[in-house]
Amino acid sequence: MSDSPQQAGKTQAAGKLPVRTKLAWGVGGFGENIANSAILSLVFPIFNVALGFSTLAIGLAMALSRIIDAIVDPLIGNLTDNTRSRWGRRRPWMFVGSILMTLFFCAVWFLPALMPQLPKLVTVHVQTESVAQKQQPAALHDSLSWYTISTKDIRLSPAATSSSFEIKLTRAPESATLFTIEQVKNGEASLDITIEPRELTFTPENWQIAQSITINAPPSFTASSTTLRILPTDDLLDSPFLHQFGITSHSSLVMFVAFALVCLFFYFSFSIFVIPFSGLGIELTDDYAERTNLQIYRLVASFCASLLVGYLYLWSQMAGEWLGGDEVLGVRLVGLGIGLLVLISTILPSILCRERFADSEQKKKEHLNLFKAIKLTAANKSFRMLMGSVFAVFMGLFFALPFMTYIGIYYVCEGDKMLAAQIGGVMTIIQVTGQFLAMPLISWASERVDKKVILFTGLTISIIGYASSWWLFTPSNPWLQIIPVVVAAWGLCACWAVNGSFAADICDEDELITGHRREGLYSAVFALVYKTAIGIVALGSGALLAWAGVVGQETMLSDDTLLKVRTAYLLIPVIFLSLAVASMWFYPLTRERVTEIQSQLRSPRQEASPSS
Fold first, then answer.
1. Which CATH code fits 122-237?
2. Region 354-372: what's the mean pLDDT?
3. Which CATH superfamily is domain 12-115+252-598 in?
């Protein structure tokens, strides 16, 4: 019979942990990674590429939700540190957070279903005759739109300076609806284009009649591509401020508010699970090398989740076809399946794990109020250096993710979304396989070299990977894009392995100085830094994509836009990863120093602990 939680709590776990304990805790890394990564991986392909929701609006919604949520993270961390219950400090929070996180994760993908009249921002590309046609789309529509456009990309030449296309609805409107044809500039020359007529009216009687739009351009027209948008005038929103964020209609405003709120609830519940989960992992052992090995179990589970994440976009498209729709419909089925996996993998650690420190020992210590606890945490120099490095790594990684989506679809695969999804799946298998193989090497190194050496080696490998993308992202051989992405990921897995281990060492140093165990608050500050980076990246990447010329629902992007996106993908990660190296250069907690701290902490605990 296993020990009760109270009995287990009286045992001062030290040194090597049993494999079953590491497995029970590490499995939570699966749900943690797949829930967060699925949203980051799918939000732009689904909400922008498929639905035409502005990248700026997506970025703003995610940034607001993460920043607001990050503010309450220290409160959650401090609450878990001071919780007293028969189940321990961490586990009740983990149990509740697991359930809430699953519910709100699934809700994200059902948002469009709540707004069946969501207008589709249909795009029409106007090109010069010299531009090679890369894809001839069929009628553009999705499972949510109630109108479509039947056309192909339009070419203009000096000999024929006008062309036309047709628009008609897929079902009758409830009343007469006025449509406005807007021009979206993809180059200064597009200012010379005129559109006739600028407005069309459809009624319940004439909705099946195709109406023609004429494009006119002078012989001097040389733009590689310009884009038109067609949307219902009745739905237009008269707000210049919101227009700056791509929110141009009442439907898009409703979508923005709903998306921001659901994201806020998801990330809040995500914190309720992850902060005590991370705190529990920090306190399970006091062995210098074993702390890194414990984090490896979490990473291995996380890598298993990454295998699935790489296929989510492809599965969404396949499920959409099976259900008779598109990826917007298919992602609902995929989201439900992933939600079930999130629930199982995150609820297990709250049931199977046992906490290390005796409840009676914690009751003897003064409860720290939130502001005093934050002040003590901020005073720790080692932790400030670690957080500077972690922030820089997150900024570099998360800035690259959305850019990679557009480079893969529009540059390397030349607009072929299915090919991009297939390559992404294979890329994930190779990437995760390499990360699995790297784990024994990292574990071996943790027994022999300082953690800082492991960190610097991994960051250097990642920088090389991102830098090589300039030459290996090429339409002539789309599959070569796998190499830079995989190399960068291999390097970063070394960072993930040692960051949690660094935090455990810092908590020991903090206990020696303050006399308190505050793994929850340190995990919360870690989460705050992580979410702040996500918020900045969400807003910044959306702004950069809009600045580069990405609108949404494009068949192809212009050469100028692709150049800007590729340059951002190269420079931003390299700069931030270099800053991560600089932040940890003078990190003071060497193996020798941690061993000394452990020796000073162990003696008082042994004296206070009852004999077996």
1. 2.60.40
2. 58
3. MFS general substrate transporter like domains (1.20.1250.20)
